[in-house]
Amino acid sequence: MNRDHIEGGVRNLRGRAKTAVGAVGGRPGRQIEGAIDQAAGAAQYAYGRARDTAEHLARDGRHLAHEARERGQALYDEAESRGRHYRDRAERHGRALAHRANENRATTVAVVAAVAFGLGWLIRGRD
Predict the structure, then answer these.
(1) Selection from 6, 1, 3, 8 nearest residue 37 by Cα
(2) 81: which DSSP letter?
(3) pLDDT at 125
(4) pLDDT digits (tens, 9 = 90+) for 85-110
(5) 29 contact partners, CB below 8 Å, separation of at least 6
(6) Which 3 state secondary structure label does DSSP give 2?
(7) Which residues contact 58 (CB under 8 A, 6 or more apart)?
C-alpha cells in the first residue's frame, strides 16, 4: 500500500460520511461536497492501486531480467567451456595425424597422390 491508496480510501469514507450527514440534516450542499469527496477519494484510491501494481510489475520485471541475465551467462560459460574442449580435442587429433603422416611419409605421399588423381579425374569434363 502507498500513500495515495490509503488517503484515497480515507477521503472516500469521509465523503460518504458527509453525504450521510447532509442527507440526515437536509443540507444538499453538504451532500454534494460528500459526493465530490467520494469520487475524488475513489479516484485517488484507484490511482494508488495502479501505482502499487506498476511497482510490483517493475520489481518482477527486474527480477526476470536478472534471472535471464544469469541464465544467459551460464549458457555462455558452458558454450565457451565446450568450445575450448572441442578445440583442444581437435588440436590433439591433428597433431596425432600429423605425427603419423610424418612417420609414414611414403604412404602419405601415395595416399595424397591417389586422392589428387581421383579428384582430378572426377572434376575434368568429358571430352
Answers:
(1) 8
(2) H
(3) 66
(4) 999 999 999 999 999 888 989 998 99
(5) 22
(6) coil
(7) none
